[in-house]
Amino acid sequence: MMLDLLDRKKIADRIKQIQDMYLEDSRPWVVGYSGGKDSTVIVQLVFHALSELPKEKLTKKVYVISSDTLVETPLIISSISLTLKRIQEKALELGMPFETHKVRPDAEKTFWASLIGKGYPSPRQKFRWCTDRMKIDPANKFILDRVSEYGEVIMVLGVRDDESATRAQVMSSHTVEGKTLMRHSTLNNAYVYAPIRDFTLDDVWSYLLNEPSPWGNDNHELMALYQNSQSGECPLIVDKEIKESAGSCGNSRFGCWVCTVVVQDKALIGFIENGEEWLIPLLEFRNWLSDIRDVREYRQKHRIDGTIYFVGQDEDRKLGLGPFTLEARKMILRRLLEVQKEVQNPYDPNYTLILEEELRVIRKIWSDNGDWEDSVPQIYREVMGEDLDWEYDDRSLFEDDQMTDLETLCKEFDVDIQLIKRLINIEKKYSGYKVRRGLFQEFERILNQDWLHYGKVEGYKE
């Protein structure tokens, strides 16, 4: 396949446009790179365009950022990491103003901190809590930091009108007539530039397969990655409206290996069918996580905010499902660690499914929820056969016989032992303070969540 005259003119015109846009003002660029075809075209075009400008005119930064959710498909994140390294090295060699960055969610907002720590159910299309926490928020934080530093920034994204009618409509709604830049829907002082907005899929692949990568990648390998995964890319998303138009990243896209929004993870299946059999335990875990999502015994009867709700009508009315119970979360953590011990990533010997800092966050969340047994170090030790450098609180609240008495009393008076543990944890947190402002407010919050929530039933009338 060769680029015809029309294609070459289109590429030449776009490179000229990129150069003109870069030289127009002093606002730095933040280029989104997801490892897929469209974002590869964007970074390659920008790199090519700027490499043709005189060095003295390269006066503003170009940040290339990629979102690492910490649960990306292993083959994809390895490819992204290698490419970012090559881009940075080539930029330094040529004296070009590029900086590459991987942005991650805060430890308290990762997939495992949310699901295993707080009990969030695995995502579904109508409760896709993961995208904001793991993709949009980290990218937006990076952008806002640049806004704080420079006043305004320009986001350069590989979005195209022909991806979907909805995407084209969203992009059109942010377009100012006669202007190349689009308004960002939520971030003040951030603008969006989409150089390949009018590119077709043929334009994208024609460019990639006929124009060499400036940093030495082989784009035929990228095409093979798509073919092996039966997949498309999950774009770096920095706009909530664009997120809604993008649908699920798990729907035949390079995305998170734990994605349960779709029925099948075609990317993982595709990789496995093409010889990457070491990914089988990840696929099996992902399918199991999807299967247990709506098992009633694994879910609490109330939401995180304490409300309970009914679904259905009359005799079909049933209690809705809340977060995963603590026991279910322990089960999920144990199984995840078992998979981590089993998986051998041939491309990254240090590959782990859950980070140490996530385990520490989960431990803290569980402790606040009444896990006096301190289960995280215990589960980790039992599965992994080793210990991490845990910090321990030697101040035991109760002796074993006292705990037995407390459990007996709770059963006698039909009070949830976990509720009592959470109330005692709050009392412990405030112990030693002369002024304990906020203590009773926290008591009330916990009681509304775990005990008095029956007075807050939604959608139910006697």
Give an account of the 3D structure.
This protein is of the alpha/beta class and 462 residues long. Among the domains are: 5-111 and 122-218 and 233-246, Rossmann fold (3-Layer(aba) Sandwich), CATH 3.40.50; 400-456, no CATH class. It has 17 helices and 10 strands. The strands form 3 sheets. It has a 6-stranded mixed β-sheet, sandwiched between helices. A two-stranded parallel ribbon has the order 7-8. Strand 1, helix 2 (37-51) and strand 2 form a beta-alpha-beta unit. Helix 11 (280-291) packs antiparallel against helix 12 (326-342) and helix 16 (417-430) runs antiparallel to helix 17 (439-450). It is elongated, with a radius of gyration of 26 Å. The termini are far apart.
Helix content: 40-55%
For the CA atoms, what is the radius of gyration?
Answer: 26 Å
Q: What sequence of helices (H) and strands (E) makes up the elements?
A: HEHEHEHHEHEEHHEHEHHEEHHHHHH
Instruction: State the name of the first-level CATH class of one domain.
Output: Alpha Beta
Features:
462 residues; Rossmann-like_a/b/a_fold; DNA phosphorothioation system sulfurtransferase DndC; 17 helices; PAPS_reduct_dom; alpha/beta; Rossmann fold; six-stranded mixed β-sheet; Sulfate_adenylyltrnsfr_sub2
What is this entry, summarized?
The chain has 462 residues and is α/β, with parallel strands linked by helices. It has helices at residues 5-24, 37-51, 74-94, 111-117, 130-150, 165-173, 201-210, 219-229, 240-246, 266-273, 280-291, 326-342, 356-368, 375-384, 400-412, 417-430, 439-450, and strands at residues 29-32, 62-67, 98-103, 153-156, 182-183, 190-193, 232-233, 253-254, 310-311, 318-319.
